[in-house]
Amino acid sequence: MDASLTLAARPLEDETGDALDRLSELVSADMELVNATIIERMASDVPMIPVLAGHLIQSGGKRLRPILTLAAAGLNGYNGPNHIKLATAVEFIHTATLLHDDVVDNSDLRRGKKAAHMIWGNPASVLVGDFLYSRSFQLMVETGSVDILGVLANASAVIAEGEVLQLSAAKNLETSEETYLKVISAKTAALFAAAAEVGAMAANASADKVKALSDYGRAIGVAFQLVDDALDYDSSASTLGKNAGDDFREGKITLPVILAYERGASDERAFWKRVISETQREEDFAAAVDLIRLRDAIEDTLKRATVYTDAAKAALTAFPDGPYKRALVALADFCVSRAY
């Protein structure tokens, strides 16, 4: 394996905040094992595979989904090896979806770096994504649990359905809030839910605790995406690892746009139709931000995110107080607080 692909246990970025840092510290030893497993299972006799996959996997993501798997196992007192394999599988599923997303969206950048398909081409990015999906299923099978395999297989199918639903809603300003929530529940929240759920399942937690962690993961997944979509129209968002305006320039229909369009006067609606469906000018993003603020669309998107973080914290009442529970509660608060 090329030495450049060595994956050290990386500190989380400063901008992720104390809540995520605390949770990361709790699972730091396990994350080192996950990182080592990523290196091992990313290996291939085809040199392009580890190089292309490593380009994205090493690009500075927060590893939030595998951290959830490890934390859910830790919350339930698990000490075996399977949560390492499952956390790795979750990260591979996430990376595969990003590789596919960037091809579908024709994105130039991912996490501040040139997107893989811009370097190696669309076919290679799609196929390496497929390779990572396959590796993730190998890891699931090794746990010996058909139930765990079923949870992650179902999540993978739901993510794909969300991608297709988003594609069908692309540039459609008549997209409802309900449809939007279906998209993010499938594209984002399904893997958050599965990540937490399988960690609890690996620990042989009771059915009510497994469901509680699934509910927790799903709720923070929705909240996380709502906040991300709000940050796209926040000029300070670049400090949080997201380039403001990316969704706008790609013509994505997110909740801030849906709310601003629904509440807008006729001239505002005409503006949105032009910039989403037709042409954009250099000054249009600033105008879009002004309209979104005028119609309180960012504020109301964040209020909806708070509803989901409250639901996430409520789901954790099934567990006694302890460091893992406190860190997961703080993580739910962080999902929204990072916007302020």
How would you portray this structure in words?
It is a single chain. This protein has 340 residues and is mostly helical. It has one domain: Orthogonal Bundle (Farnesyl Diphosphate Synthase). It has 16 helices and 2 strands. Strand 1 and strand 2 form a beta hairpin. The protein is globular. It starts with 16 loop residues before the first helix and ends with a helix.
Write the layout of secondary structure elements.
Elements: H1 17-26, H2 28-42, H3 48-57, H4 64-75, H5 82-105, E1 109-110, E2 113-114, H6 116-120, H7 122-142, H8 146-169, H9 177-202, H10 207-231, H11 246-249, H12 255-263, H13 266-277, H14 284-294, H15 297-315, H16 323-337
Helix pairs in contact: 1-16, 2-5, 3-7, 4-5, 4-9, 4-16, 5-7, 5-8, 5-9, 8-9, 9-10, 10-15, 12-14, 12-15, 15-16
Low-confidence stretches: 1-16, 237-242
CATH names the topology as: Farnesyl Diphosphate Synthase
Using the 3D structure, state the CATH architecture.
Orthogonal Bundle
Distance between the termini: 42 Å
Q: Briefly, what is this?
A:
It is built from 16 helices and 2 strands. The protein has helices spanning 17-26, 28-42, 48-57, 64-75, 82-105, 116-120, 122-142, 146-169, 177-202, 207-231, 246-249, 255-263, 266-277, 284-294, 297-315, 323-337, and strands at residues 109-110, 113-114.
